[in-house]
Write a structure and sequence with these properties.
The complex is a heterodimer of chains A (250) and B (248). Chain A is of the alpha/beta class and 250 residues long. In chain A, 37% of the residues lie in helices and 17% in strands. Chain A is built from 8 helices and 9 strands. In chain A, β2, α1 and β3 form a beta-alpha-beta unit. In chain A, α6 packs across α7. Chain B has 248 residues and is an alpha/beta fold. In chain B, α4 runs parallel beside α5. Classes of the chains: A alpha/beta (250), B alpha/beta (248). The interface between A and B is medium-sized, with 14 and 10 residues.
Chain lengths: 250, 248
């Protein structure tokens, strides 16, 4: 196996959603950790309580701050992204495609605590997902609905990668991985939850899908903390070419 | 950088606050502040002190418990002519004059009128700061307000207690003000608006909002001893040299 490292952390939160620091805080932390790139990916407006308010205005202001950093500080390069929410069984996201296309990174995530697109979506998808997260309740129909919603989301929208699949929401990883491989969308190995993810990564591997290893940091101290993900990827012998934010050490 | 100044505090003298000046200063000292402005409401406010309270502030020590005391006021703008509720001869003796709109003294009006009132008040060389401009009760033309503030060297406050529910719905406008101030590289001031000693120096929410909007630390007055000293000195000179602006 080639020796590899990571040059980017593409999933971090700031005070624009439920993170704690300003953009510059995350950027400076990424620099301290020797990264070349860091993406600011706050929660889309759909999350109850923590989602971005007035997203278009906020994203425009964030873009200005990021441009200023990239112009005056230069390194690491800061990217503007979003952690968008799947809000319906048909894979609708909580921001329109016109907005998503203007961003550098789009993560699509399934969270149970989101404002659903319709009451029916809430009753048939998110309420059972929440129940499932809190109890031992399992249902094949729900698993299929989750899988379909996420596959639709990556098929219909410009999604860079799927955020923390394998976490909280019961999903058919094999099917999702196949669909993602076909559409050149990566799956995330989320370092904030790496210990729970081994089964999902194993299931996704045979489909030939790419991965991306991120911190999901909510404070600057956690930005660039990618060791748990690296350890998992090495244990499962994922080749560096299949990790989007990896570089091979000469 | 840490907070070394709270530029907006009240005592029992305001009539609806609960601690004494001494208690506030001790609290400021315990939080390692180097400056505390005491800014009682101007006389128009129900329960606020008589004008003599402000003229007699000269007897107060300049420093106590390691905290420099800034003799201030939160004066009321009374009308669109920018008239304040304390005569100039009293205002002249204060270190720091913050002004704001309160509905006991200025009936909430249109954006044009609210803005006009503050804009005219800011032309008064005795005025140093506009407090809680994010109050949704008094919608403002933020862009004009900031332009005028920059021209006059007047500070715009981000009020911490507005963000804790004192003036419900302030958060959004405060966010817009902070973003605009950040884009224009304007300096802002944070105020706790403490009405109890426990809240003196409590500026966390306002500081987060300012930083999140992209305002760099050197543009936040409360973070630098030199910045506060310079500001107070500059404004003192301006008050002395500026010609008296007639108030109709």
């Amino acid at each position: 196996m080639k020796d590899w490292g990571l040059f980017a952390d593409l999933h971090t939160h700031t005070c624009h959603s439920d993170g704690h620091a300003a953009i510059t805080g995350n950027a400076a932390a990424a620099r301290d950790r020797g990264l070349k790139q860091v993406a600011i990916t706050d929660h889309g407006p759909g999350n109850f309580g923590v989602g971005m308010k007035r997203p278009e205005l906020t994203l425009a202001a964030m873009r200005e701050q990021i441009n200023a950093w990239n112009k005056f500080e230069g390194s690491p390069e800061v990217l503007l992204g979003i952690e968008a929410n799947v809000i319906s069984r048909d894979g609708d996201l909580d921001l329109p495609d016109e907005v998503l296309k203007g961003l550098d990174v789009v993560i699509a995530s399934l969270h149970p605590l989101v404002r659903p697109a319709s009451l029916l979506d809430g009753l048939t998808l998110f309420a059972p997902d929440l129940l499932q997260r809190l109890t031992k309740f399992r249902s094949r129909r729900l698993r299929n609905a989750n899988t379909k919603a996420m596959i639709e989301a990556v098929s219909r929208h410009p999604v860079s990668f799927v955020g923390h699949p394998g976490l909280w929401i019961d999903i058919d990883t094999r099917e999702l991985a196949k669909a993602c491989a076909k559409r050149d969308t990566a799956l995330e190995i989320n370092c904030s939850h790496a210990s729970e993810l081994e089964g999902y990564v194993k299931a996704a591997l045979p489909a030939g899908v790419d991965f991306v290893i991120n911190s999901d940091a909510h404070t600057p101290e956690v930005v660039g903390r990618l060791e748990p993900g690296i350890a998992l990827a090495q244990r499962l012998r994922i080749p560096a070419e299949r990790i989007r934010n990896a570089y091979v050490r000469e | 950088m840490t907070i070394i100044a709270d530029m907006h505090t009240h005592t029992i003298v305001s009539g609806h606050a609960y601690s004494t000046l001494d208690e506030n200063l001790r609290a400021a000292s315990a939080k390692r502040l180097l400056f505390m402005a005491t800014t009682e409401h101007g006389p128009c406010m129900p329960g606020a002190p008589h004008a003599y309270y402000f003229s007699n502030m000269r007897i107060l020590p300049r420093e106590l418990y390691g905290v420099r005391l800034i003799r201030g006021i939160e004066a009321n703008v009374l009308n669109t002519a920018g008239e304040l509720d304390l005569p100039e001869r009293f205002l002249r003796n204060l270190d720091y004059v913050a002004v704001g709109l309160h509905d006991d003294c200025f009936a909430p009006a249109s954006v044009e009128e609210n803005t006009q009132a503050l804009l005219t008040a800011m032309q008064n060389p005795l005025v140093d700061t506009v407090v809680h401009p994010g109050n949704p009760k008094f919608p403002l033309d933020i862009s004009r307000l900031l332009t005028a503030a920059a021209e006059q060297g007047v500070l715009i406050e981000i009020n911490n207690s507005s963000l804790l529910g004192s003036r419900k719905g302030s958060g959004e406008t405060c966010g817009i003000i902070a973003r605009m101030a950040s884009e224009r590289r304007m300096r802002v001031v944070l105020g706790s608006d403490a009405h109890y000693a426990g809240s003196v120096g409590e500026l966390t929410k306002a500081l987060n909002l300012a930083r999140c909007a992209g305002i760099a630390d050197e543009y936040i007055l409360n973070l630098s001893k030199d910045a506060v000293e310079q500001f107070v000195e500059q404004r003192r000179q301006r008050k002395q040299t500026a010609r008296k602006v007639p108030i109709k």
